[in-house]
Amino acid sequence: MVDIRDSKAAFVMELLSSLSFVKVQSITDEKAQLIEEIKEAVGNVKLAKQGKLKAKPLNELLNEL
Questions:
Q1: Phi, psi for 62 (deg, rounded to 5)
Q2: 13 with 24: CB under 8 angstroms?
Q3: d(CA 39, CA 8)
Q4: What is the Cα–Cα distance from 33 to 10, expressed in whole angstroms?
Q5: DSSP string, 37-61
Q6: How far apart are CA 56 and CA 59, in angstroms?
Q7: In this predicted structure, what is the pLDDT of residue 24?
C-alpha cells in the first residue's frame, strides 16, 4: 500500500504512468469509498479482538440483514 498526500497524488500518478512497466488504473469514487469502509471494518474487528470495542452478536447482525 502506498499512502500519498492528496496534493501530490496527480504528480505521482503522472510519474507512474510514464513508466512502461507500470500499469496505472484509477478507481471510481464508489470503489474508493468501499475501500475506506472495508479499512474501517477491519479496524473495528481488530479493536473488538483487543476488547476495546464491543462486538454485536452474530444473530443480531443477521437479523439486520
A1: -65, -35
A2: yes
A3: 22
A4: 19
A5: HHHHHHHHHHHHHTTSSPPPPHHHH
A6: 8
A7: 85
Three cell numbers at 5?
498526500
Amino acid at 12: V
CA distance 30 to 17: 22
Measured CA distances, 26 to 30, 42, 52 (Å):
12, 23, 35
- Amino acid, res. 43: G
Give pLDDT tens digits for 11-65: 998 999 999 999 988 889 999 999 999 999 999 999 999 999 988 888 887 888 8
Q: For residue 14, what are the CA distances in angstroms to 22, 45, 64, 65? A: 11, 36, 44, 43
